[in-house]
């Protein structure tokens, strides 16, 4: 997409603008450089670098002197960013039915469920697993909810390929960082809320307020889908701007979960909707996925899709990096999952222990520069619910991975002896698989199918699923060599 600068601003310049960037290192010739205020950086300090890389114009919020490219001064570049991205990409959100999913756990699963139920040719997805639409999958999203320069570009891509719907994971951090200031939703969905990201928000109350933003920004004729079984249901209900519909176990829910039975390879669920009862078979495992599926179904029903159409699409649901049991011909099992919060880990381990397994061996870490208060809670959760734990690094960023692991174990009781620290994640995965015995379940948690690790000075390629397969092969090769 290309626009002239005078199409974006009231300025006497027809220089071509080919994109919008807030990172000077990512500038390519023709970009508009927005000097926003970052968490630790003032991007006005990188104007010269941006110009050297080919920026066609600069948007600032303070005097920077004359430059060899046009300079546009606005009151607040952070607030300006959403507006100019919407304008540059011709307001793609207005051409799509926007679906926002928020909650502590279950955002990725619920969003993926919705996309699958509607159909990938009609619905684009943006979230933890990147973005996907039609037959395209892109891993070009560095955050659960991308910044505005990417968000509106992605939405334009969806619409240009004739999608009518877009489902996004609306994270609390995105609202804290003001990334979603001008976005309204046709449908908003709430999965559950437990304590998370307190290092960013400062308190649970602030975290909860950011979660509420999704529902405050739902259109007045929009749809709010709420989990009535969750502790904070009444809090969320108070701020809903659209029409409220609920899901849960009580009989007064719009979509009622009557009963469900979980098997090793499927879940049978009985629903009640609009005075009719439905019995369906889901490929998703765990009681938490019963709720995720129910939320997705209800959202699609209220968008006008027929239950029969949705039920036919349920077998197609496949959530990458969630309850991903590897296809290995071994006497033990290996699962990769994104679970990283105490609630998510507890739910996952409770489910795993309903299966016909012996020990559960968990590999997990905690992210650097993130919720410090959560680390010891995760440590306690894992050692109290798993047979054995191996704590390791996970996106340590600028922190020392050893310090993070020490935070995880610092509140464990002295008599806990079912854990160890293996700093290197690859070595930790190898260790877990090497100690697994017949019918043990190795769980590699925290990253799902993500393809990176964020270290101090670089981001490297790293995928837990690939590493698990690699470790299994190494173990099998050693066995063959000794025979």
Report on the structure:
The chain has 3 domains: 3-87, 3-Layer(aba) Sandwich (Udp-n-acetylmuramoylalanyl-d-glutamate--2,6- Diaminopimelate Ligase, Chain: A, domain 1), CATH 3.40.1390; 92-316, UDP-N-acetylmuramoyl-L-alanine:D-glutamate ligase (3-Layer(aba) Sandwich); 324-482, Alpha-Beta Complex (Protein-Tyrosine Phosphatase, Chain A). It has 16 helices and 25 strands. The chain has an 11-stranded mixed beta sheet with strand order 10-9-8-11-7-12-13-14-15-16-17, sandwiched between helices. β9 and β10 form a beta hairpin. α15 crosses α16. The termini are far apart. The model has no long low-confidence stretch (mean pLDDT 92).
Question: What would you say about this model in short?
Answer:
33% of the residues lie in helices and 24% in strands. The protein has 483 residues and is an alpha/beta fold. Strand 21, helix 14 and strand 22 form a beta-alpha-beta unit.
The order of strands across the largest sheet is: 10-9-8-11-7-12-13-14-15-16-17
- Compute the average pLDDT: 92
> Any low-confidence stretches, pLDDT <50, length ≥5?
none
How does the helix and strand content classify structurally? alpha/beta
Give the second-level CATH assignment, the architecture of the largest domain.
3-Layer(aba) Sandwich
Query: Care to count the β-strands?
Result: 25
* Assigned CATH class of the largest domain: Alpha Beta
| CATH homology-level superfamily of the largest domain | Mur-like, catalytic domain
Question: What is the makeup of the main sheet?
Answer: 11 strands, mixed
Specify the number of helices. Answer: 16
Quaternary organisation of the protein chains: single chain
CATH fold label of the largest domain: UDP-N-acetylmuramoyl-L-alanine:D-glutamate ligase
What's the N-to-C terminus distance?
A: 61 Å
Instruction: Give the CA-based shape.
Output: globular
Q: Output the radius of gyration.
A: 24 Å
How large is the share of residues in beta strands?
A: 15-25%
How many domains? The number is 3
Percent of residues in helices comes to: 25-40%
């Amino acid at each position: 997409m290309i626009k002239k600068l005078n199409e974006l601003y009231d300025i006497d310049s027809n220089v071509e603008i080919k994109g919008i960037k807030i990172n000077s290192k990512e500038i390519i010739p023709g970009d508009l450089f927005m000097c926003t205020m970052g968490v630790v950086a003032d991007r006005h300090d990188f104007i010269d670098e941006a110009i050297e890389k080919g920026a066609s114009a600069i948007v600032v919020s303070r005097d920077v002197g004359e430059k060899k490219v046009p300079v546009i001064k606005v009151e607040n570049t952070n607030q300006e960013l959403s507006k100019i991205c919407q304008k540059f990409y011709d307001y793609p959100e207005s051409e799509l039915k926007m679906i926002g999913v928020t909650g502590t756990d279950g955002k990725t699963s619920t969003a993926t469920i919705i996309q699958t139920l509607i159909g990938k040719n009609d619905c684009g997805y943006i979230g933890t697993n990147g973005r996907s639409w039609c037959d395209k999958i892109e891993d070009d999203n560095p955050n659960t909810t991308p910044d505005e320069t990417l968000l509106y570009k992605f939405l334009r891509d969806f619409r240009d390929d004739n999608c009518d719907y877009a489902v996004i994971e609306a994270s609390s951090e995105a609202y804290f960082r003001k990334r979603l200031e001008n976005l309204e939703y046709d449908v908003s969905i709430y999965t559950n809320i437990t304590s998370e990201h307190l290092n960013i928000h400062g308190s649970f109350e602030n975290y909860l307020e950011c979660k509420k933003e999704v529902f405050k920004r739902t259109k007045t004729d929009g749809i709010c889908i709420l989990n009535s079984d969750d502790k904070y249901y009444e809090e969320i209900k108070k701020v809903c701007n659209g029409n409220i519909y609920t899901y849960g176990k009580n009989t007064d829910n719009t979509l009622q979960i009557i009963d469900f039975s979980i098997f090793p390879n499927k879940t049978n669920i009985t629903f009640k909707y609009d005075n009719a009862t439905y019995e369906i078979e889901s490929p998703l495992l765990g009681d938490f996925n019963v709720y995720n599926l129910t939320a997705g179904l209800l959202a699609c029903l209220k968008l006008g899709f027929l239950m029969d159409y949705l039920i036919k699409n349920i077998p197609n649901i496949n959530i990458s990096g969630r309850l991903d049991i590897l296809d290995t011909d071994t006497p033990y099992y290996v699962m990769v999952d994104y679970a990283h919060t105490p609630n998510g880990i507890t739910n996952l381990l409770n489910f795993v222990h309903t299966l016909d397994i012996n020990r559960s061996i968990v590999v997990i870490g905690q992210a650097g520069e993130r919720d410090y208060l959560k680390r010891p809670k995760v440590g306690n959760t894992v050692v109290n619910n798993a047979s054995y734990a191996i704590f390791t690094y996970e996106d340590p960023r600028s922190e020392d991975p050893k310090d993070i692991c020490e935070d995880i174990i610092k509140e464990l009781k002295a008599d806990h002896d079912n854990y160890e620290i293996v700093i290197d994640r690859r070595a930790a995965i190898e260790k877990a698989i090497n100690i697994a015995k017949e019918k043990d379940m190795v769980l590699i948690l925290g990253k799902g199918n993500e393809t990176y690790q964020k270290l101090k000075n670089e981001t490297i390629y790293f995928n837990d699923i690939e590493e698990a397969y690699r470790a299994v092969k190494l173990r099998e090769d050693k066995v063959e060599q000794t025979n």
